[in-house]
Amino acid sequence: MDFTKILKTSRFLDPAQGFAETKRYSEVRVDPLTGRTSRILDFPIKELARADVRAQVENSKAWCPFCPAVVEFVTPKFHPDLLGKERYSRGEALCVPNVFPYDENGAVCVMTREHYMPLLEFTAGIMEDALACCFEYLEDVVIKQPEMTYQSVNWNYMPLAGGSLIHPHLQITASSSSTNYYSEMVPALARYEEKNGRSFWSDLSDEEQSRSERCISANGRLTWLAAFAPLGVFDILGILHEAHGPEDIRDGLLSELVEGLLKILRYIDSLNMGSLNMSLYFLRGDRYFVPHLRICPRVSIPPFDTSQINYMKMLHNESLTTLKPEDICSELKALWHE
Q1: Which terminus of the chain is more solvent-facing, meaning fewer CB atoms within 10 Å of its CB: N or C?
Q2: How many domains does the chain have?
Q3: 3-state secondary structure the chain
């Protein structure tokens, strides 16, 4: 398996150094499966200051449809022609239709009764109940709509990550149409196995374990990696080797998945990063595809609160970061095994 790095050097005459020659270094990294590239930049950034969200949280309480006093009255119910329940619930989690869906089957899972929950306050119980609630919905969708094979559980935590509501919630989709992520991954997975006679996911886990540069944890059922060619500031990949669909993630495997997620939330918080995007991907009926999760923090770049998404990501679909995955792995592994 190839982990290709293309090293780049830029030279210029720096006024801060009396116009002496200065060099900046960067890397182009090629994803070992798809060939998609990401860039690691030499761009010094001071430690991020923790954002003060108190006013934002307080102002959002007045019109929140997910708070306990109103959620039962203002959220919709699932259509009986499509699903077996009007709503899905487990513990504090409540799954209802998304009134602004991205696809023909879109749902929202309210994760907790609390209007705002800092990353360090999410518990195993909250996360397990929320994910299990999402999985029950996805299992039910295909009973009457078996063609809804592209399924995912997604999280935009806080407005910086695209969350339109402060109240913690997951977004769930079940579709007959692929996103670009699936369109890129699925044929690449088939090509890899047909060429090598082995599963890409098993090979990736084995290779990363042997290299010990980006493997955070692996036990045969679940592998956690810092992605070689990250999709964001950093990109943690969780591979569920023994699962095929949402119904397979239960009991011990669900607890193990949530335990890893909580460690990642703790690490993100330790960097004073307070927003994230997460997706847990499923593809029913495809033997090459293995359920996996990706989680990326979202930041605004100081000192001007610049968006991390610029023309390179928006129009060239090229991810940029200043953090090396190997450094992220080292720091997260230390926390992981405390």
Answers
A1: C
A2: 1
A3: CCCEEEEEEEEEEEHHHCCEEEEEEEEEEECCCCCCEEEECCCCCCCCCCCCCHHHHHHHHHHCCCCCCCHHHHCCCCCCCCCCCCCEEECCEEEEECCCCCCCEEEEEECCCCCCCCHHHCCHHHHHHHHHHHHHHHHHHHHHCCCCCEEEEEEEECHHHCCCCCCCEEEEEEECCCCHHHHHHHHHHHHHHHHHCCCHHHHHHHHHHHHCCCEEEECCCEEEEECCCCCCCCCEEEEECCCCCHHHCCHHHHHHHHHHHHHHHHHHHHCCCCCEEEEEEEECCCCCCCCEEEEEECCEECCCCEECCCHHHHCCCCEEECCCHHHHHHHHHHHHCC
